[in-house]
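pls design
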């Protein structure tokens, strides 16, 4: 992706990340041309705890999900903690962001920077960035669905990592590193960005004491992250605990619903279909007429590209959901629709 867009946007640094469409939490990405790993904890602390101009939630609220840091600060870049603590020390003059989204939601982002000796980003780059939001968002959504169909259910035992107030590793169980694609150096800054993002989120003012998210691992597919804010310093001043384990049906079905663009009502009806419920049963459960239930089902069929209930079950259950049920559960008795 970066090789294709570099001639038009001419960045000196670039990170391509994926996000959870429900929460905008960081779930992974390509950071090889991004910030030095040592800077990543501070970057995500600003993003998910402190807040700054052009953060992802800000871009998500815009009609055109593109932002240039110099414009958002009216040229006074020192107002931005991201500029003061990261960009200026690294010798970068500006940051351009685009949230990658389609009509179903946000799926990722491009974060680009230019060095002090490069020309500034301008209106042409903003126009190009805006044109990328929908097609790249759609491509990422389709990639999520492909990954869901291909993921393995195998994985090591859950792992635990303790982080201090600067999100440095205080302690990690032997299994935690086996979940990640890259080695975790003792006491270093080698955790995936999704872990730092979640740790920052639970430390924010007014944030809940615990939060759950997920990330994608090349070795294990989708994995679940739980973070807790520790009320009292423990284990050599640890402030946050993060548990890493295999993702289950909850993460999968939520992402499937978002990726196919199902409404809450369509989601509820689909869940009942997956349980083998008849149209009459569904009608009574959701308080709709059988005719209205069938109309919602037709909309679900159109969005998921299937033609029948059997195809819907094969697409959503057998492909995405069944592999996570261990041991396999017997299906409920099927009854003809009425």
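designed seq:
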């Amino acid at each position: 992706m970066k090789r294709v867009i570099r001639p038009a946007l001419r960045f000196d640094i670039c990170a391509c990340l994926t996000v959870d469409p429900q929460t905008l939490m960081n779930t992974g990405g390509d950071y090889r041309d991004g910030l030095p790993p040592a800077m990543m904890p501070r970057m995500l602390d600003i993003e998910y705890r402190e807040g700054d101009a052009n953060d992802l939630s800000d871009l998500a609220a815009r009609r055109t999900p593109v932002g240039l840091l110099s414009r958002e600060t009216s040229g006074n870049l020192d107002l931005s903690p991201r500029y003061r603590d990261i960009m200026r020390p690294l010798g970068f003059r500006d940051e351009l962001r685009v949230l990658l989204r389609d009509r179903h939601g946000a799926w990722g982002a491009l974060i680009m920077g230019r060095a002090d000796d490069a020309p500034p980003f301008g209106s042409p780059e903003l126009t190009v960035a805006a044109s990328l939001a929908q097609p790249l968002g759609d491509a990422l959504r389709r990639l999520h669905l492909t990954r869901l169909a291909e993921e393995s259910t195998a994985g090591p035992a859950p792992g635990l990592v303790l982080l201090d107030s600067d999100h440095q590793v205080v302690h990690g169980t032997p299994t935690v590193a086996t979940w990640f694609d890259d080695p975790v150096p003792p006491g270093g800054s080698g955790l995936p960005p999704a872990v730092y993002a979640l740790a920052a989120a639970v430390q924010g003012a007014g944030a809940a004491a615990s939060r759950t998210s997920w990330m994608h691992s090349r070795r294990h597919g989708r994995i679940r992250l739980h973070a807790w804010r520790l009320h009292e310093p423990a284990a050599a001043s640890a402030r946050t605990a993060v548990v890493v384990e295999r993702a289950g049906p909850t993460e999968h079905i939520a992402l499937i619903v978002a990726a196919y663009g199902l409404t809450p009502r369509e989601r509820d009806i689909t869940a009942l279909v997956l349980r083998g419920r008849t149209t009459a049963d569904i009608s009574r459960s959701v308080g709709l007429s059988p005719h209205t239930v069938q109309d919602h089902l037709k909309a679900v069929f159109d969005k998921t590209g299937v033609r029948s209930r059997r195809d819907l079950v094969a697409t959503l259950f057998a492909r995405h959901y069944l592999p996570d049920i261990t041991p396999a559960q017997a299906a409920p008795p099927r009854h003809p629709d009425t």
